Amino acid sequence: MKEKYILEYSSAVANDPVVYTLVRRFDIKVNILRAEISSGQEGSMLVELEGEDSRLAECRDYLASIDVRLSPLSSSLAVAEAECVHCGSCTGVCFSGCLTMGAPDWKLKVDREKCIACGLCVVACPFRLISLKFGE
Amino acid sequence: MAKTYEEINAKIAEGEAVVLTAEEVSRMAEEASPGEIARKVDVVTTATFGAMCSSGCFINFGHPSPPIRMESITLNGVPVFGGVAAVDAYIGATEVSPEDPAYGGAHLIEALVRGEELLLRARGKGTDCYPRKSIDTWISERTVNEITMVNPRNAYQNYSAATNSTDRVLHTYMGSLLPRKGNVTYSTSGELSPLLNDPFLRTVGVGTRVFLAGAQGFVSWRGTQFNTTKPRAENGVPEGNAATLMLTGDAKEMSADFLRAAYFEKYGVTLYLGIGIPIPVLDEDMARFVSVRNRDIPVLVCDYGADGHPAIARTNYEALRSGRVTVEGKSVRTAPLSSLAKAREIAGLLKAQVASGAFPLAPPVQSLPERSSVSGLAIREKSR
Question: Is B53 among the catalytic positions?
Answer without folding.
Answer: no
